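Appendix C: a fully annotated inverse folding record. The material below is reproduced so that readers can follow the format used throughout the book. The structure is listed first as tokens, followed by the designed sequence.
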């Protein structure tokens, strides 16, 4: 049976929602809770909610948070195929969610930065027909070789390979030229407007990959391969928390294409998934009770 292998990061998020601006050096009332996170893990969970049977290649620690994260993945319908490391903690991220839903993140990548090359070999057996790589895996040195190996092996095995650009700040740190060289040959890149700008623009990205999807937030998204262009308008929703919206978007696209949708229809499905994600707290789908 064909499947999607999602490669990247698994985190436990500490969600901190605050209505008032943070009072530096003092107290700011907030609602705090733990939730599953990590861009790759989020995408895998959204894929499962859309009827896929995804596998997640990520590293976690041999600790209580790791066990909690693994149990949540299993409950969501995601098969975890990554290593459990006894000398690194499971990654955690403090997510500050402002009143307008915008989020700022303070990550401690923990075991994510120790994803070994050897894990990729076992994760690609059986070979998936789609590999989705979170950019965080190659933006950070400790997991870069494993992330690049997954991309190369996926291409060599005939899989579709998509990459999420992940985040503007680390792209600027490693440089656009390096990042684009690492993802050369990929089928598709997902990036928001700021990430595309950090990568030198759509044309620069298309020099290395087959197609680009640019996410415009509430305004929708654009797909282009440099010849054809499709656009999808945003959906009017009440934004609660934007965490994981891009991960849901990627899952919406992948699931639609795997069902046989064309680029225009898949883009509409991706926008719908992203819009759904922002209507509730946290980065994962809401499971029916």
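Designed amino acids, in order:
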């Amino acid at each position: 049976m064909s499947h999607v292998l999602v490669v990247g990061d698994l985190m436990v998020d500490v969600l901190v929602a605050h209505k008032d601006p943070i009072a530096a050096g003092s107290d700011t009332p907030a609602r705090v809770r733990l939730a599953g996170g990590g861009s790759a893990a989020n995408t895998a969970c959204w894929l499962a909610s859309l009827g896929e049977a995804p596998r997640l290649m990520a590293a976690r620690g041999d600790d209580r948070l790791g066990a909690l994260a693994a149990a949540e993945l299993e409950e969501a319908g995601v098969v975890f195929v990554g290593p459990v490391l006894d000398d690194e903690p499971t990654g955690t991220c403090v997510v500050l969610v402002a009143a307008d839903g915008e989020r700022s993140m303070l990550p401690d990548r923990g075991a994510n930065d120790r994803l070994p090359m050897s894990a990729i070999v076992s994760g690609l057996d059986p070979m998936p027909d789609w590999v989705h790589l979170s950019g965080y895996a190659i933006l950070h040195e400790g997991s870069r070789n494993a992330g690049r190996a997954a991309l190369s092996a996926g291409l060599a095995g005939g899989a579709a390979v998509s990459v999420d650009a992940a985040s503007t700040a680390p792209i600027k740190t490693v440089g656009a030229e390096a990042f684009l060289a690492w993802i050369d040959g990929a089928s598709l890149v997902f990036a928001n407007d700021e990430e595309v700008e950090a990568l030198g623009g759509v044309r620069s990205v298309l020099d290395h990959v087959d197609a680009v999807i640019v996410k415009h937030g509430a305004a929708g998204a654009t797909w282009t391969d440099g010849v054809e262009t499709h656009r999808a308008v945003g959906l009017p929703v009440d934004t609660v928390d934007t965490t994981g919206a891009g991960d849901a978007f990627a899952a919406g696209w992948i699931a639609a294409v795997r069902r046989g949708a064309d680029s225009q229809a898949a883009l509409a499905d991706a926008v719908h998934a992203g819009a759904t994600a922002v209507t509730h707290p946290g980065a994962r789908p809401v499971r029916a009770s």
